[in-house]
Design brief:
The chain has 166 residues and is mainly alpha-helical.
């Protein structure tokens, strides 16, 4: 096994579960998450020789995963428009029909409210609320200022509160 394979296998071992849940919170489907994880790890494998360590490995891996999840949702959004529906309704349906979901009604309602957020607010909310990442870490992943992230998170929280009638 060469050095690239060793590093890649270490990344897969270290990040598979975290990335699964990170992506799953975006797409709300076990099958879609598994497919996306394969694409993410292929992208990591191909890009590994160009990783120069200018950012932390965690940041680099999460940036790839977040971008892939957002691009997936953008493609779904286009498909939803062509089918005269909305992405939010499609994601809501996936939450309702997910055989792997074992949460409460309140958790399902929160998932639906998060799914209805615009993509940047959704990404910030997922990373800050669920994954408890610092604003500095999210800024490294997204390339957005911490001030803008704090504003996006605040707005996302207000929208979620309104959606949940809190």
């Amino acid at each position: 096994m060469d050095e690239k394979e060793k590093i890649f296998n270490g990344i897969v071992e270290e990040y598979s579960e975290r990335l699964y849940w990170h992506v799953r919170r975006f797409v709300h489907s076990h099958e879609d998450t598994d497919d996306l994880l394969q694409e993410i790890f292929i992208k990591i494998w191909k890009a590994l020789p160009s990783f120069r360590g200018e950012s932390e490995l965690f940041t680099w891996v999460y940036r790839i995963a977040t971008n892939e999840a957002i691009n997936f949702l953008r493609r779904r959004k286009v498909r939803a428009v062509l089918n005269f529906t909305s992405l939010a309704k499609e994601l809501e349906r996936k939450i309702d029909e997910d055989p792997w979901f074992n949460g409460t009604e309140a958790e399902a309602a929160l998932d639906k409210a998060v799914a209805a957020l615009p993509e940047k607010q959704r990404a910030v909310f997922i990373m800050r609320y669920y994954e408890e990442l610092s604003y500095a870490r999210i800024a490294e992943i997204t390339g957005t200022s911490t001030g803008a992230l704090k504003a996006s998170y605040h707005i996302a929280c207000e929208k979620i509160k309104a959606a949940l009638n809190l």
